[in-house]
Fold this sequence. Notes:
Blueprint: E1 2-7, E2 11-18, E3 22-30, E4 35-44, E5 55-62
Amino acid sequence: PTVRFEYKEFVWIGASYRHKDALIGMVGCTLNKQFKIGYSFDYSLSTLRSVNNGSHEVVIGMQLANKKR
Length: 69
């Protein structure tokens, strides 16, 4: 399951859980009408934890077209 909260369509924060595998924390913001950026960190709960300290992810989103009808 994943839960995400957004504030004033600008910044968001969320969390997710993969059963017996990982806890995930995430944050992001809208830079302008075209670009968004986000970051997440996965903390391993499985036996891989002994060799994995977690993983980082940075996402940049770009909206190419927004034609309102």
